[in-house]
Task: structure prediction
Amino acid sequence: MTLPPNEIEAQAPLEQGIGSLLNALCLQLEMMAAVLVTGQGHVVVHAPAHVSAHLREQASLFCQLAQQLPDHMLVEDTQLNPAFAPVFAAQANPSIRFFAACHLRDANQACLGWLFLLHPEPRQLALHQQTSLRAMADTAARWLTMALQNQALAASNARWKFALDGAGHGVWDWDLSSNRVTFSTQWKTMLGYDDQDIGDDCQEWLSRVHPADLAHFQTLIDAVKTGEAQSLICEYRLLTKTNEWCWILSKGMIMAGKDREGPRRMIGTNTDITARKQSERLIWQQANFDALTGLPNKHLLNQLLSERIHGDHGANNMVALMIVDLDNFKDVNDALGHIYGDMLLMEAASRIQAAVLPADIVAREGGDEFIIVTTAASLAELENTATNVLRVLGQSYELLSEVVFCAASIGIALYPQHTLSPNVLMKYADQALYLAKSTARGQYAFYSHELEEEALKRSKLTTELRFAVEQQAFEVFYQPIFRLDTRATVKAEALVRWKHPERGYVSPAEFIPLAESTGLINAIGDWVFKEAAAFAKALRDSYVPDFQISVNKSPIQFLTVGKLDWAAFMQTLGLPGNAISVEITEGLLLQQSQEVHARIKKIRDTGMSISLDDFGTGYSSLSYLSSYEIDYLKIDRSFITNLTTSGKNQALCKAIITMAHELGYQVIAEGIETEQQLNLLAEMGCDLGQGYLISRPLPQHDFVVWLANSLSALQLAEAAG
Result:
């Protein structure tokens, strides 16, 4: 085998001397190149740079030639020599015409290698030059002899080093005939014993092996004794003097006896690998278990699920996979902080484990999702398990000084009824969970093939939504926001609409969650803002100088950095900051984080105002209101719908309006559809409103017409008044 040609040159100074020898030979005999090939296939080349590379590429050629050469050979012109003409005809450029070779032999005449001289022109060597060549060959042979001796010495030193290193471990010598074992002091010290504490009977060793490891250890020893194995390598536990288990690595080999009865002694070492085992255990624990709850994580779950599915679970039984999702965990986590959220997750994990059978698998998928794998003979059993889990999770949680509620939803898929694949089973359970959460929280739902069709529709819609984002295939509708006392339209809310080429307008309630889950919401939100800002500029220039447009910013959009700098874009339009109001949801403020504070401040520093949307539908805590600078508070339409028939709703709306005014906020009521609702809100002191009573959301052109007519009607009314 030919090794890299420069390998021998890069080793010891002794071998580097060969390069100097070749250089001297070329100078003395006026040769283009000299090549040395060792018996191990190493090649050393001395030649000009443009020739050296070609010669190195031909290393295998010289190795092949070397096998066929006599001790000395001189070929004055290779093209005239029938034996060499075909070999060198298509070789290095320039081609090799002159060729001389000498065998390199040691003192015992064993061949160490070959020395070659090369030239591109036909040459002749005088007698004294041939003598010099042979002298150089003898010198090269001595160099190689010394190199080989050094290599052998290095190998011997390495073996001695291994033997000496082994002495630092627990050395043992087992006489297999008498079953007596000689233990080194280190062997005993490793287990905490003094020399006199342990005798030389093999039972001193075997009696300390962990019962669970003894059979395996004995089997490996027997295999070495009988010749089935060449050496002993075994990891097992030994009992220490303090009654603790110490992990040991034993390595041993047979030493043949003098008679023909076979092996008589086995010698080896013991190494304490307890620290390594503990480290491996920790790594395995971290890789397979959730750090917070101690439950199996998704990685281990996949293994356990596969074992459960392919195991023997009874001919009439089914394996069910349940995905449990805590419905309003995010609200609690955002309102109270991650410490409380972690405590809730730990308590939820404990409750789930208590609600299922001991043989069931409970794992944490991540976030606020848990997985249950259970075996049952009937759907009734599974429904009973799901009901128990929902019941215990729906009970109140006492977290330090706080009492919170956090119900759950469960999606269930069955093996083998629904699928034979563990991965597909997980997907089907997730689709069932989507159904449970979208119908009514705190419920469980089983997978059905109709759900698969719905999932395919969502997947298709997601793909179409991505295409719509690329094509900017959206429209912005505007719903007027008016003063309740004068009914003058002073604001409008920008609402994105998607007109699907086949389905027509897709409900925002359907595509906005998809946009948020896929990250497309940022691109959509930036596009809506640019459209709304340009429209606000046009309305201010032509109709109402101080007109303002509200633009929604979802929590995901708010907490991530988009590609568009809103403030900079407004500056390019020459639009002041107060032309835009940014609408955010109540859940953002519940986080009480420095990041939210900083982003709200940045928005208000540009002159834009902040509107708090859907007020009253979030977690029941008002302490956050005093922590933020808010301009508008929007009462959710759920309070307005039954305003005229519900005394409680009237009281709540009045309390919200009073509180907001005390904090310096203006109040906007959403969903006003009747004159009675408008009048009641006006009497309560509500500042602004929007709803179908005045106008539905309108396309941009229609809104301009509506606004112009509204202003004209208002002017006529004022003139008549």
